[in-house]
Amino acid sequence: WGKQGHIMVCKIAEVPTFNSCLLLGCRLQNYLSEKAVAAVKELLPESAGGELSTMCPWADEVRFRYYWSRPLHYVNTPQVCNFKYSRDCHNSRGQQGMCVVGAINNYTEQLYSYGDSKTSYNLTESLMFLAHFVGDVHQPLHVGFEEDEGGNTIKVHWYRRKENLHHVWDNSIIETAMKDFYNRSLDTMVEALKMNLTDGWSDDISHWENCANKKATCANDYAIESIHLACNYAYKDVEQDITLGDDYFFSRYPIVEKRLAQAGIRLALILNRIFGEDTDGN
Ligand code: ADE
Ligand code: ZN
Ligand code: ZN
């Protein structure tokens, strides 16, 4: 995702909202546990102003300083609509684990050493990388085809503007939705996504929490979902120099909104598992 997508994912994970306002009043819904909120607060740098969401685009800003981190934002397949860790998760030099799925597993593992005074990891950076990469693995074209670099080499027109397909999914769909539906306000869009989480998608959330291989994270499964969405929605009916407009926007923005929301929920779940769940069941 672009900057706005990453901020939205992290706001969904960390900002509490009022929901289910019944006769007895409203309940404050917080996806992050109290322990996770406390740990995140302690790990955040001063410049974050106490908010994780301000640091969620950080990993894109250090792409050049930390050159090794570039392949950690995505994973590509050899032109097939499935993902296999052993086949696909490597950098250009063939080093295993150097992809977005390996990165999520690695930074999750590092964060488990929180509270261990002898830890040799920079857990502030681990947290900022993890929060960013959980967002990226949910962007369908971050699990795309090697040949077109996840849509980066597919030139398209987004309405009348020249873009590439990857940028359309990182930024343009979000920007158009914000402009057309949400008064150009990021916070209004985040509120709408959260509303959907408590109404429309509430039955789905328990499924989003589970995954086939119950290991540290379900990042493998998130990547499988993304390549399926890339094939069925992002790449579907797209060719070089095509113009994408209303038809494409209205059929694809629901996917983008759902993936942003899923990423936020799952980021909160991962952080809760690492730092501790609340005893009252939240
Ligand atoms: N560069 C190469 N492949 C990419 C992908 N799938 N996403 C983002 N950047 C990439
Ligand atoms: Zn991207
Ligand atoms: Zn990224």
Automatic annotation (TrEMBL):
CDD domains: S1-P1_nuclease. Transmembrane segments: none annotated. It catalyses: Endonucleolytic cleavage to 5'-phosphomononucleotide and 5'-phosphooligonucleotide end-products. Its EC number is 3.1.30.1. GO terms for molecular function: metal ion binding; nucleic acid binding; RNA endonuclease activity; single-stranded DNA endodeoxyribonuclease activity. Keywords: Disulfide bond, Endonuclease, Glycoprotein, Hydrolase, Metal-binding, Nuclease, Signal. One of its GO terms (biological process) is DNA catabolic process. It comes from the Eukaryota. It is an enzyme of class 3 (hydrolase). Belongs to the nuclease type I family. This is Aspergillus nuclease S1. It comes from Leersia perrieri. The lineage of its organism: Eukaryota, Viridiplantae, Streptophyta, Embryophyta, Tracheophyta.
